[in-house]
Design goal:
It contains 27 helices and 17 strands. By secondary structure, it is an alpha/beta fold. The protein has an eight-stranded mixed beta barrel, surrounded by six helices. The chain has a five-stranded mixed beta sheet with strand order 2-3-1-6-7, sandwiched between helices. It has a two-stranded antiparallel ribbon with strand order 4-5. α18 runs parallel beside α20. It is elongated and about 120 Å long.
């Protein structure tokens, strides 16, 4: 194309010997052509492909009135200057100039075919008989330009050629036709007075604004506002096009689902502005890591997808996945903090793993959760997921969406803790409940254990802490200064920045540290004791109360208990509930109470199910009690009402129903 354009230019340029310095009309239009090419009013998808500017009408005015040589040199000079100012590669500028020359050459042939040929020596007048020739020239110019640019874009994006033709023909024809149809008006105005020609810029600007607004609205509908990436809607449309051509081309399609690990922690610790900046950086990195023609989209939150329209083999997809993993993993500095972000990536192929986009997306999502569970950076979907693990992975997927959606599926119930000596409510324990839209109420034991060794555990713990602090703040506003206890896992305590997150959420909800208690299990102390101790000490410095949960079921030693900054220990319900029937259990509970008091710890008994147990615990010197006999775990609204009814100290000497 560049060579052909150079030949056309070489044949035309000698005619410029006839340019006369006094021809004001020519130089005014030429100047406007240059000005508008440097500051385009219409722009298509990019500057090189589908680039369309208002300079087209001035270029055609030069062609119709003064001939091919003037039009080619005028537009070529503006393109060269534009390329230099924008620091475009020389080959790109040369290609644009060559394309312009070829398109104008085609338009000139159409004019000659109608007997209309202008030159500097013999400018052509605009008459009614000129209009058919102008129409033919416009059609010739548009046809050559559209075919070349649409083919180039289809090759570059690996999109079907027919898609470019059908999808862009009408809007581009309308814009180009509007610009070309104004060329006779430019010539007639210039013949009247060249200084009137600039007045045409005002209506042109109105057209420009309308066009820009239309393009912006269309872009917003299919793109993510924050990152500028295509959104789920655009991805779905593009995927349908790719699947439509799948059977005909016998191609193989790949789909990645990418989830960022620890994003919620970063977002909550450093603030949403830092999280937004992180997403922008990672969006750019993802775009740079994929192949030309691959589509990167943001599905929402910290989840992205990559559509690979043509995958030769599994190794090709894995190579792209490896580049994405490395791109995400590179450290990022935000607000003076150097962050290292990990990701989990799931891979699925069509037609291997699904004949339609919905099934492919579901399988890629399952593969992503498998990678997250196994600690692998990426994993390809396997039919094994369906044979046993798919249900678990689907449950994790549903739980993750419940956390992100915050639409009421997850809720906290609260069980009161009461002083055995005075009957006063000293606090409540927050217990997580999940109301699945299909499964109904999912017991905690059915999902907590499955989550604990995955990256999802962090998000779940953060959600619980945030919700508990928010409720504590609401109770404080009603005059209820209650301590709220939240269970945390070993993985939470090993996570860097966990104490900072807790501090940031207390500040956000304006909750004093004395109103938050974190419960840890004995087993959590056995996993990386040094790391856990560091986190516990950081939490203790914040003033957060720490409780050793389910005491007696683990393997903690006296030396460990003495070193830990805990203030309370809770006797497991399995011992307390059998005190009235098993003498050994009653002896064990009594020994635990004595041990706790000797260590200076407050002792809480779980599983109090009757008044006799209450009285026996009080006689043994236990401090507080918790259990169904006092009250089951209740939703926040019901617990608020319960607390209002029991503002006075509770008593077991009457026959009233304590709950």
């Amino acid at each position: 194309m560049t060579v052909t354009g150079a030949v056309v230019m070489a044949l035309s340029v000698p005619n410029l010997r006839e340019v006369h310095p006094a021809d004001a009309s020519l130089f005014v239009i030429w100047a406007l052509l240059l000005l508008l090419e440097l500051g385009p009013l219409f722009r298509g998808r990019s500057d090189d492909v589908y680039g369309l500017s208002s300079s087209l009408m001035f270029m055609f005015a030069l062609l119709v009135h003064w001939g091919l040589a003037v039009a080619i040199v005028g537009h070529a000079s503006s393109l060269i200057l534009q390329g230099a100012l924008n620091r475009k590669a020389a080959w790109r500028t040369a290609g644009n100039v060559g394309l312009t020359a070829v398109c104008l050459g085609a338009a000139q042939l159409a004019l000659v075919a109608f007997g209309k040929q202008a030159s500097l020596a013999h400018p052509a007048a605009i008459e009614v008989s000129t209009l058919p020739a102008l129409l033919a020239a416009g059609v010739a110019w548009f046809t050559v330009n559209f075919l070349v640019t649409s083919t180039a874009y289809a090759l570059r994006s690996r999109a079907p050629w027919w898609r470019e033709l059908t999808g862009n023909l009408a809007p581009l024809a309308l814009k180009d036709g509007a610009a070309i149809s104004l060329a006779p008006l430019v010539v007639l105005t210039a013949e009247r007075s060249p200084w009137l020609v600039p007045l045409l810029l005002f209506p042109l600007y109105a057209v420009y604004r309308s066009n820009v607004d239309s393009i912006a609205l269309k872009h917003q509908a299919g793109h993510d506002v924050l990152t500028g990436l295509p959104n789920r809607i655009y991805l779905l449309d593009r995927a349908h096009e790719v699947f439509a051509s799948l059977a005909a081309q016998r191609a193989r399609i790949g789909l990645f689902v990418i989830d960022l690990d620890r994003f919620k922690e970063i977002n909550d610790t450093l603030g949403h502005h830092a999280g937004d900046r992180l997403l922008k950086v990672l969006a750019d990195r993802l775009g740079a890591a994929v192949r030309p023609g691959d589509l990167v989209a943001r599905l929402g939150g910290d989840e992205f997808a990559v559509l690979l329209p043509d995958v030769v083999d599994d190794d090709t997809a894995r190579a792209v996945a490896a580049r994405i993993t490395e791109a995400v993993r590179k450290p990022i500095r935000l607000d003076g903090v150097l962050l290292s972000v990990e990701s989990s990536l799931g891979i699925a192929f069509a037609p291997d793993h699904g004949a339609d986009f919905d099934s492919l997306l579901q399988h890629a999502d399952l593969a992503m959760y498998s990678a997250k569970r196994r600690g692998s950076p990426y994993e390809t979907y396997s039919v094994e997921f369906v044979n046993g693990s798919a249900g678990r992975l689907t449950l994790l997927s549903d739980l993750r969406r419940a956390i992100e959606a915050a639409d009421g599926e997850l809720e906290l119930h609260y069980q009161p803790q009461v002083s055995l000596s005075g009957g006063r409510v000293v606090g409540v324990e927050a217990l997580l409940r999940w109301r699945h839209p299909v499964r109904g109420l999912v017991p905690p034991e059915d999902f907590i254990g499955r989550v604990e060794n995955t990256a999802l555990m962090a998000s779940l713990t953060y959600w619980v802490i945030d919700a508990a602090l928010a409720q504590s703040a609401r109770w404080a506003g009603c005059g209820q200064q209650l301590r709220v206890a939240v269970n945390v896992s070993a993985t939470d305590l090993q996570r860097e920045g966990f104490a900072d997150y807790v501090a940031s959420r207390m500040r956000y909800h304006i909750v004093d540290s004395t109103r938050l208690q974190l419960e840890i299990t004995e087993s959590a102390l056995m996993v990386d004791p040094a790391s856990v101790l560091t986190t516990l000490q950081a939490l203790a410095r914040l003033g957060v109360s720490l409780s050793l949960d389910d005491f007696g079921t683990g393997y903690s030693s006296m030396s460990q208990l003495h070193r830990l900054p805990v203030e309370e220990m809770k006797i497991d319900a399995s011992f307390v509930s059998r005190m009235q029937t098993e003498a050994d259990d009653a002896t064990i509970v009594g020994s635990m109470i004595e041990l706790g008091r000797a260590l200076g710890l407050r002792v809480v008994a779980e599983g109090v199910e009757n008044v006799a147990t209450w009285r026996q615990l009080a006689g043994l010197g236990c401090h507080d009690a918790q259990g169904w006999w006092i009250s089951p775990a209740l939703p926040a609204a019901e617990m608020t009402a319960w607390l209002q009814r029991h503002r006075a100290p509770l008593t077991v000497l009457s026959d009233i129903d304590i709950a």
